[in-house]
Each structure stands twice: as C-alpha cells, then as structure tokens.
Write a structure and sequence with these properties.
- The chain is an all-alpha fold and 257 residues long.
- The chain is 75% helix and 0% strand.
- The chain is built from 14 helices and no strands.
- The longest helix is centred in the C-terminal third of the chain and has 20 residues.
- The two termini are 39 Å apart.
C-alpha cells in the first residue's frame, strides 16, 4: 500500500502540479526503503511467507540500484538502509530453506536463488535453485531461473541433463520446446530437436510455436530437398493456426516470428 501511495504522490506532482518527474524517480518512489521495511515487518507476521521476505530484500536492493545505475553493487557493502534489512531477509530465507515442509523449503530456496541472480551472483544461485527443484519439482520459476543461469556457461551435456530432468517431472509442450531449442542451439542435434518439437506439437495441437520451430529446423537442414518440403508444410500449418488465433499481443508476436 505504501509503495502505491508513493507512486500516487508522484502522479499528483506530475499531473496536478506539472512537475517533471524522471522514470528513475517513479521507480525509486515505488521501490522505496520504507516499503522494504514494511514488507520485512509483514514477513515477521507471517514467518513462513518467503515471498514477503524476498520482496523486502528486493525492494531494498533495487532502490539503491536505481540510484546508482552505473555502479556494480555488492549486497554486503551497501549503505544502511538497506544493508541490514537485506542481510536479515537473506538469513530468514536461509532458515526457511531448512523447513521440514519441502514446499516451504523449496520456495525459500527459489527466492534465495532469485535474489542472488538479481545481485549478479548467478553462479552462486545455481546451488539454491537445484535444491529447490529437487525438493519441489513443480516449481516452474525455479526451473526457469536454473536454466537461465546455465544457458551461457554450462556444458551442453549439463543443459541437456537439466532439460531431461524437468521433462520427467512434467511432460509439457513448453518443456519439450525448451529441450528442442537446447538440442538445436547447443548440440547441433537437429534430428533430436525436430523430434522434441514434433512431440510438443502433439501435446498442444493449437500451439503455433512447435510448427514454427519445426519449420526453422527444416530450413536449417535445407541442403536436402525433402527438408524444404517439411519446412513448407509446417509453415502452412503454423499459418492456419495463426489465422484461428484471436487478435492479441500474442498473435502479433507470433506473426513477427
């Protein structure tokens, strides 16, 4: 509520009084240190609510980051506030990560990973995110962040291992498409990439993405004539699915693709 109130204050200053307020000022007003402190207090009232505690740390961190855009920040060397607030929040999350309830522990670990990624410590975040998905494999956010920390630095085999582990947990078109892209972009295994994209198209017959990916894979293999035919077929199927989509931002995005 305080964050929204601060934003409203900026709104009235700008639109009622005609003050010029920069984008950074809007952001600092919303992600204020006062809001961070109140979120931390709210977390104390709900001691197992890892999201409130994580938000408190993030608000404190991002407020300083907006004020120092060119500076590489270290959460251990920030001014006060929010240094002590962030350390308290991290300690709470670390304690919650050992909660006997696996879902609570996994949620705390996912949020620890999120904060460490935000702080620029992606390599350190991986251990927390791996523990999170091991305790609760249904945490899609943890899987996404784990993949994000690995995509530019891990070996192809490690990426494939994570993709396959995720797929065993949930066989979905989205997870098949992620595996397909890893096969194509990291291992040049175009046949496996096509296999996974085809499986995705069967899981979600109205999803245009698998067809677009199949067409792209076939074009990459277009040195053989039959692949051009495969690309053409999938582009036509993608267009048919696209025409059936209601007008939306999603449709515009797919059209660009």
């Amino acid at each position: 509520i305080l964050a929204v109130s601060n934003w409203q204050s900026c709104f009235f200053r700008h639109y009622r009084n005609g003050e010029e307020i920069t984008g950074t000022e809007w952001q600092i007003a919303f992600f204020s240190q006062a809001s961070a402190a109140n979120l931390l207090k709210a977390g104390k009232l709900k001691p197992k609510d890892f999201e409130l505690t994580s938000l408190a740390a993030y608000f404190g961190w991002i407020n300083v980051a907006f004020q120092n855009p060119a500076q590489k920040l270290d959460p251990n060397n920030l001014p006060n506030p929010p240094r002590d607030l962030i350390q308290e929040a991290l300690t709470r999350l670390e304690n919650l990560s050992h909660d006997p309830d696996n879902k609570t522990a996994a949620g705390a670990l996912e949020n620890l990973g999120f904060l460490k990624v935000a702080f620029g410590n992606a390599s350190v975040a991986r251990a927390d995110l791996r523990r999170a998905v091991a305790l609760d494999p249904t945490r899609e956010g943890a899987w996404d962040m784990l993949m994000g920390t690995l995509v530019d630095s891990a070996s192809p085999d490690e990426l494939l291992s994570v993709c396959n582990s995720r797929l065993k947990t949930k066989d979905s078109a989205r997870n098949r498409l992620i595996l397909s892209k890893v096969c194509a972009q990291k291992t040049d295994n175009w046949n496996e990439a096509a296999k996974q994209a085809e499986a995705a198209s069967l899981l979600e017959t109205n999803n245009v993405l698998p067809r677009l990916l199949l067409a792209a894979i076939a074009l990459k293999q277009s040195s053989q004539t039959n692949y051009l035919s495969v690309a053409d077929t999938n582009l036509h199927l993608a267009n048919d699915l696209f025409q059936k989509m209601p007008d939306s931002e999603e449709k515009t995005k797919r059209w660009r693709e």
